[in-house]
Automatic annotation (TrEMBL):
Keyword entries, A-Z: Nucleotidyltransferase, Transferase
Sample GO molecular function, one term: N-acylneuraminate cytidylyltransferase activity
Spans traversing the lipid bilayer: none
The organism of origin for this protein: Albibacterium bauzanense
Highest rank taxon of the organism: Bacteria
Protein name: N-acylneuraminate cytidylyltransferase
Alphabetical list of Pfam families matching this protein: CTP_transf_3
Length: 238
C-alpha cells in the first residue's frame, strides 16, 4: 500500500528513430515487443497511479496502449532527435501533467528496452524513496577493478594507472555503474534541481546479470542468451 496522498507516475521513454536497431523499442523479444516488459512490470508492481509512454511514433503509441500504458500526448519534435536526453523527456512529461492540473509525488523513468526488469525491483527500490531520499538509481558492480585499466596509444598497449595496476582486487574500492533499468525521483526535487545526481540518490544494488545496454544487434543477441539462461534457472527441476 502507498502512503496516503502519495501519487506515482511511471514514464517510459520510447523514441521511434533508432538507427542501429530499426524499431528497437517494439522489436519482438521472445514473442512480444520489448517495451511490453517495462509496461507490464510497472503495472504489476501496483505502485503507479499512471503508467505512460513518451513517444514520437504512432506505431509505438498503439503498441504501448495495447499493453496497458497511456500515451496522453505525442512527444515534441525538439525531444525526438538524437541529441535529446532522458532528463529532457522527463521534464517535458512532468510539465505536461502539471499543465493538465495533475500532480505526482514521485516518478519512475523506466527504460523501454529493459526485459530483465521485475516488479520486485520497482517495489524494493521504491521502499528506499523516503522523506530523506529524493532519488534512487539501480546500480551494478563492475566485475573487474576499473583502476587496473589499460590503454592503447599508437597501437601500443599501456598501463593507465600505474599506482593501482599492481594492487590486489580486494584492496581496491568497489565501483558501480548504472544498471540500465529505471530511475526514481521526487517530482518537485527533480524539477527544481534539473537532474538526478544533484538529489544525492540512494543506490539500489542489482546482480550484474540483469544489466542491459542494447545499442547494437550483437547486444540484442547477447541479452537474448542471458534472458534464456536466467529463465531456465527459474524453472523448477523435475
Amino acid at each position: 500500500m502507498l502512503p496516503d496522498k502519495t501519487k506515482n507516475l511511471a514514464i517510459i521513454p520510447a523514441r521511434g528513430g533508432s538507427k542501429r536497431i530499426p524499431e528497437k523499442n517494439i522489436k519482438l523479444f521472445f514473442g512480444k515487443p520489448i517495451i511490453a516488459y517495462s509496461i507490464e512490470a510497472a503495472l504489476a508492481s501496483d505502485l503507479f497511479d499512471e503508467v505512460m509512454v513518451s513517444t514520437d511514433n504512432l506505431e509505438i503509441a498503439a503498441i504501448a496502449q495495447k499493453y496497458g500504458a497511456k500515451v496522453p500526448f505525442i512527444r515534441s519534435f525538439r525531444n525526438s532527435d538524437d541529441n535529446a536526453g532522458l532528463n529532457d523527456v522527463f521534464f517535458e512529461v512532468l510539465n505536461y501533467y502539471q499543465d493538465q492540473g495533475m500532480h505526482f509525488t514521485n516518478f519512475c523513468g523506466i527504460l523501454s528496452t529493459a526485459p530483465f526488469i521485475e516488479k520486485e525491483y520497482l517495489q524494493e527500490s521504491f521502499s528506499l524513496l523516503n522523506e530523506m531520499t529524493h532519488a534512487v538509481i539501480p546500480v551494478v558492480k563492475y566485475d573487474f577493478p576499473i583502476e587496473r585499466y589499460l590503454m592503447i596509444e599508437d597501437e601500443i598497449l599501456k598501463v593507465g594507472d600505474r599506482d593501482n595496476y599492481g594492487k590486489r582486487s580486494q584492496d581496491l574500492p568497489e565501483r558501480f555503474h548504472d544498471a540500465g533499468q529505471f530511475y526514481w525521483a521526487n517530482c518537485e526535487s527533480f524539477l527544481l534541481n534539473k537532474g538526478f545526481f544533484k538529489l544525492m540518490p540512494k543506490a539500489y544494488r542489482l546482480n550484474r546479470n540483469v544489466f542491459q545496454d542494447i545499442d547494437t544487434l550483437d547486444d540484442w543477441e547477447r541479452i537474448e542468451m542471458i534472458y534464456q539462461f536466467l529463465n531456465m534457472k527459474k524453472k523448477p527441476s523435475l
